[in-house]
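# nightly structure sweep
# worker-07 picked up a monomer target from the shared queue
# config: single-sequence mode, recycle default, output format = C-alpha cells
# input follows
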Amino acid sequence: MLLYHDPRAPNPRRVRVFLAEKAVAYDTIEVLIANAAHQTAEFRKKNPIALLPVLELSSGQVLRESMAICRYIEETHPDPNLMGADTWERAQVEQWNRHAELELLWPIAQVFRNSHKYWEGKIKQAPEFAVIMREHIAERFDWFESELAKRSYLAGDRFTVADITALCAIDFGKVVDVRIAPATHPSLAAWHKRVSERQSSKA
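# output follows
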C-alpha cells in the first residue's frame, strides 16, 4: 500500500495513526500542500479535487477519503478493533467520530483557512467566520469536557477511531492557537494526555 500524504495535515495524520494502531506496513509519498504538490496534474489523477490523503493499493485501486481508508483497513486488518465490535458499539463510535469531525476538526480547519496568513491571497477568506468558529469551538470544548468527565475515551472505555479524529483535530488547532486549558477543562486535558502518550500518536 502507498499513502500519499502531507506530514503536517490532520486528515493524513488520522490515517497514519490508524495504520500505526493496526501495525500495518505501508509506504509513503509526501505531497506537500505548501509547495502546491497536491495541485499538480499528476496528483489530480489520484484525486481530482486535490485533497489528501490518498491510499493506492498494489492493484492500482485508489481510496481518497480518510475515513474510507480507515474503514478499508479495519475490514482487512480487524485487530485491534477500532470501529466497534458489535452493532451498538459501532453506532457509538460512528456517532463520536462524527462529533469529532464536525464539532472539532471542521471548525478548527475553518479558523485556519479564514484567519491564517498562509492562506492570504490563495483563497477567499472570511475573518469574521473564523471568529464565529472560535466561539463554537470554545462551546464544544465545554461539551467534550462534560462528556470525558464520565469515561476514559470518547466512545466508551476503550480507544477508537473517534479518539484519533479528536486528537488530530485538537493538535492541529495549535497552528491557530486553539488549545486545551487544563484549569478549565481538566477531563479533556487528561484525555488528551492519555491518547498523546500512545505510540501511534507519533505516526
